[in-house]
Amino acid sequence: AMAERKFPASPEMLALLEQARQGSRTAAVELFEEWKGRVLRIVRLQLTWPLRRLYDSDEFLQEVTVELWTHDIAPEVFESPERFMDYVTGLAVNKFREARERYHAQKRALRRDVVAAVRERLRKEDAERERARAAEHDQQLDQQAELARLERGLPARYRAIIRLRLRGWTQKAIAKFLNICERTVRRVWQK
Q: Which residues does 32 contact at the CB level (< 8 Å), separation at least 6?
């Protein structure tokens, strides 16, 4: 798509292209500086809002400049302004894609960390609930043992009144159920 566009090629630009084709990194960077506004527009079109918070579009241009200075570039890249712009634009888009992949990888890692943290929290809450249940069960056993100790030596009717009362029955319901006076239930319970 980029090769179909025509870029202005002044004699100075053609001379820079020739110098870059012969291996001059300085010439390649000068060419880039000349056309970086166009590359910047392409980068800004590619840069979505989540990445705009994290990256400045100039950072991508700097990375392209570093790439031009540090990597060997095939001479055919400098055959025409269009080929050079295609190459530079491709570099910028690749840098953008790398940044997007890093962003999504970080996001996935964060999700994994959050899920792991939630699972750990739920595991701890379950363990705490289990400890609370065990403690409550132990307390009930202790109460039952204490009740059994206290009931020893009491008549069967007294034991029945105490057990029903502990189950939440009212004095009136106990009296009616055992066919005794309500005052008797109250007296036994108060002892």
A: 39, 64, 65, 68, 88
